[in-house]
Design the sequence.
C-alpha cells in the first residue's frame, strides 16, 4: 500500500518540503503519476496530460499539499466531532467511482457514504480506473447529467 499510496504521505509533509522537491519538476511528476499503469491508473489522453501539466503551478502544488496535510491531521478530528454529533451531509449526493480502481475494489463506497449522508441518490461504478472524468468521460457526463437534471 505504501508504494501505491506514497503521495498521501509525501504531499502531507510539512511546508515546504514537497513543494520544493516538486518545483521545476511539475511535468515529470504529473506524467509519472497520471501516466503510470496499474490498478486504476493510466488511460489519459495526451491532451488531458498536457492540461494537467499546464495547471500544475507552484500555487496549485501548494494547495494540493495543504489538502493532504489537513487530511493527515485536523480533518480526522473535525470529521469525528461531526459524526459523533450526528451531523450528516444533507444535500443530494451521487458517488461516482471507477469500477477498476482501488476505491471500488478495496472499499465499500456505498456503505461508507451512506454513513455520512442523508440523501444518497446513488452510487455509480464506471468502466474505468481511479479517474472517471478522464478515463470514462462519456459515462461520467451521462451520470452527472442524469443526477443534475432530476
Sequence:
Amino acid at each position: 500500500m505504501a508504494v501505491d499510496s506514497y503521495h498521501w504521505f509525501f504531499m502531507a509533509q510539512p511546508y515546504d518540503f514537497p513543494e520544493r522537491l516538486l518545483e521545476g519538476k511539475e511535468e515529470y511528476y504529473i506524467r509519472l503519476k497520471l501516466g503510470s499503469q496499474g490498478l486504476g491508473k493510466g488511460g489519459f489522453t495526451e491532451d488531458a496530460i498536457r492540461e494537467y501539466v499546464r495547471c500544475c503551478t507552484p500555487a496549485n502544488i501548494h494547495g494540493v499539499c495543504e489538502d493532504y496535510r489537513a487530511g493527515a491531521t485536523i480533518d480526522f478530528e473535525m470529521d469525528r466531532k461531526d459524526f459523533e454529533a450526528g451531523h450528516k451531509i444533507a444535500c443530494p449526493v451521487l458517488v461516482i467511482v471507477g469500477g477498476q480502481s482501488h476505491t471500488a475494489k478495496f472499499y465499500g463506497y456505498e456503505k461508507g457514504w451512506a454513513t455520512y449522508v442523508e440523501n444518497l441518490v446513488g452510487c455509480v461504478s464506471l468502466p474505468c480506473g481511479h479517474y472517471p472524468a478522464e478515463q470514462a468521460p462519456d459515462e461520467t457526463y451521462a451520470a452527472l447529467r442524469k443526477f443534475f437534471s432530476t
